[in-house]
Amino acid sequence: MDGMTRSQVDKAESKDFALGKGPLRPRDAATLILLDREDGGFRVLMGRRHSRHAFMPGKFVFPGGRTDPADSRVPVAESLHPDEEAKLAGAPGRTSPARARAIAMSAIRETYEEAGLLIGRKGPFDTTKPDWQGFVEHGVQPSLDVLRFVARAITPPGRVRRFDTRFLAAWRSDVAVELADGGPTNELEELVWLPLGEAKEADVPVITRTVLDELEKRLAHDPLLHPGGQVPFYRMIRNRFIRDVL
Known about the structure:
The protein is α+β, with helices and mostly antiparallel strands. Helices cover 28% and strands 30% of the residues. The protein is built from 6 helices and 12 strands. Helix 2 packs across helix 3. The chain is globular, with a radius of gyration of 17 Å. The N terminus is likely disordered.
């Protein structure tokens, strides 16, 4: 990021927007929907954002955040399933395989940072990337083969911050280490496992409720979330919300 931290970039972009320098370009981001099976149904992990946050304060959300290009250079135990990589890298706005890998890795990294959950496989792991030292310390090799691409949404123009967010899903059983004191960033005030129906009724952003609806329908006919499923894509074109299928 040319020597700037993520927060410095965010502040600079917000200042440009406030000065009328045009709409913000959406930044790549990823979020992880962690699922758990219970009594024939499904629960989902959600956390409440701090009220001081400029973006969606106080809302229940999934762990997630901005993609760092350096994430693509972190070694993994297993790569993305080919069908999932093709969906992440496909049109519209084609993405390189390296960028698709970085997006998927950022979902795993953010889940560790915000929730203290390390997704992957136990075993020796080494990298010099500072954001991944928790995986080194706890002996967890991040693994992408467990991820499923379930939705994509771009923040509409006119917002203080805009993201091109890929919603990925994994299972609680894919968590190799669960830290008792949560993640190192304390981004989320509380973490709760909610049944899917209750999660939709919580104080969540509209797009989160929409994605949960989509996921519930997909789980109804594909409870194992096989690779290569249809991915709804939400965005605004000419002041109209559009739903495409990837």
